[in-house]
Amino acid sequence: xxxxxxxxxxxxxEIEQSREEVHKGKTKAIVMTIKEEEVPxxxxxxRFLELGAYPDGVDKKECRSIRMMATQYIxxxxxxxxxxxxGVHLRCLKREEAERAxxxxxxxxxGPHMNGRMLAKKILRIGCxxxxxxxxxxxxxxxxxxxQTHTNLNHVPPNELxxxxxxxxxxx
Length: 172
Prior knowledge:
Largest sheet: 4 strands, mixed
Number of helices: 7
Number of strands: 4
């Protein structure tokens, strides 16, 4: 129940309005985290393929995981490629290159604005790869203002629907 004091019929409502668009603030945060990273994600794999050396201070289990992971990659001309299941070699991208590739593919060079799944397929089709592709696609599409305003509305309830039987009408 709401208690309304006697004699007070209206209350002032204060609304704060921000001049910055929400989606632009989110992309700035993504760019900031990308620029903080200096060593590429595939540094240990390249080091193992070139020199056969493991990172300092790793145990036997981590050495085995790097060795097993390196079987999926090849080094050609100083560039690292990942072997895909269909025989195409996917070029491994650094964070800055990955962000630029997502932006170019999503903004219309390879087609119109698309959802995360289609963006993933198109980037794999042009031959690019990085280790956090799936989460980066989804975050990028969620940060696109045009995609959020023109998306199809999801009319599915948030929980599963359970049918309830009503025994009263049929109890005779």
